[in-house]
Structures are given as C-alpha cells and as structure tokens.
C-alpha cells in the first residue's frame, strides 16, 4: 500500500511546524490556508521559495520503500509557423527520441515519467497548486487514472511571434530528491540539438529548447527567453505587473506590443511555480526590454475549461 510521507527539511523552531502546515495545506488542496501561511512567515522570499519547492514534490512508500518524486519542465519555444505546441502527432513522432536523449542526459538510474505533448504555457500558467499535485500523484504506482479540470486563459499573440510551451516530466529517486547532472555545456548543447531536431515539424523552423530543470527555475528561464525572442520580432513597447486581488498566487502581466493585430497581450505568473526569485527574474527581463506602463489595465481573456487525462 502506498503511504504518503511528510516532507521534513531540517529547520529549527517554529519553521519546522510551518513547513509541516504548508505540506498539509498542499495535500488537502486548501489554497486559502496555504497563502495564509505564506503571509504569516517573517521572510516572504523564504516562504515563497519553500512553497515553490514543496508544491512540485511528493514522497510516498511502495512496499515499504521510500520514493521521492519532483516535477521538472523542459522549456520549448515554438518559432513562428511551427506547430510543436499542442500537436499530439508531432510529439508522438518525437517521443522515442526525446526519451532516449533524456536517458543520456539525466544521471544514471533516474526514473522518469514524461507526460504526452508539449503543454502550452497558457495551460501551465493556469495550474493551481492542486493541479500540480494532481500531476505528481498520477505517477504514483497503483494510483487511479484521474482527470483534472482547470480554467485556462488563451494568451493572445500576433501570429508572427514565438510561443512558449513545456515538456512536463516527473523524476523519481529512492535516495532523496532527484538531482540534475553536473553542468556540462557540450552535453547540454547536444541534448538541446537532438530534442529540437526531433520536434521540428517539416520545413518549419526548429523550436528552441532548454534542458530540463526544476519547475521554479524552468518556468522563469522559459518565460525570459520567450519574451526576449518575442521582442526581436514584435517589440514590447510597455508592460505592467499587477497582483490579482482574488488570488495571492497570481500576478497578471500585461504587454503593450508594436502590433496592429494584437496591440496588447496578457499572461499569468504563479508564485507557487516561480517563487519570488523567479518572479523577480521575469520582471527584470521585462524592465530590460521596455518601460513600465503608467496606467494599470486589464484586458478580457478567452477562457475555457480544460479537462486533462493524466498519464
């Protein structure tokens, strides 16, 4: 029987109880309790880093043996005219090659579960902590196949700009939390080249990919590179970041674009995915590309309820 473990880093004093309470809020899907705990912490940066770390992890036992699983993401930037993101057939054709490349890149004996397809950031930016935990629990041996429902917002973009997606995977270890291999530029470049070529669709430009990383690193890295590449094609002329009053997790980014077709675009950042450091990295990139807008604004978004089979 699979028995959940409580993730217990080694802090001192009240911090230990705070971490256990955060873990309990994540396991019960109580977002309100989770963000109240964040507000109670004396150091916001530490609190958000802890939430981002714990939200992407689960631990459990199988036949008495401990397992430690964590969500990792592989950023994919689809070039204009590409059809990598959301194309099940393209990913199916590339699936074997991507798995072989991952086996060669990851440390030996790393267990992995790769979810089908390149998920658009429109989806991932909509994931609440409960949805992320649902993905993790779907990989536990013997777990029932489930479906997740979540409300997505379409990121409206000009047709000639890159789009951002991620290959999602859960890595599992019996010896503590999964580790990434040591930095090796040659190996990383070889991995990126193989995966990019495998995903390339016909005569369209090959997508840009980054090596897998922990969620709170991969999401800001992917967003920053995507924004930079977008700016090269359709300049970002201004931006503004606004916390969403209805959710302590959400920051809405509005972009002003030098485009007659789509003069404004908007996307969501979630603190439980990036932590404060990742949020600061995205804001720093935006600040380097364009000035901040003087007036706050919100734009209507196309919304749809998405039902996702977890595999």
| Percentage of residues in DSSP E strands | 25-35%
User: Which shape, going by the Cα principal axes?
Assistant: globular
Major β-sheet profile: 8 strands, antiparallel
Q: So how many helices? A: 9
User: Could you tell me the mean pLDDT?
Assistant: 88
Number of extended strands: 13
- The structure class reads alpha+beta
The Rg value, from CA coordinates, equals 19 Å
Task: Bin the helical content.
Answer: 25-40%
SSE order, one letter for each helix or strand: EHHHEEHEEHHEEHEEHEEEHE
Describe, in plain words, how this protein is organized in 3D.
With 311 residues, the protein is of the alpha+beta class. It has two domains: 63 residues, no CATH class; 244 residues, no CATH class. The strands form three sheets. Strands 1, 2, 3, 4, 5, 7, 8 and 9 form an eight-stranded antiparallel β-sheet that branches. α1 runs antiparallel to α2 and α1 packs across α3. The chain starts with a strand and ends with a strand.
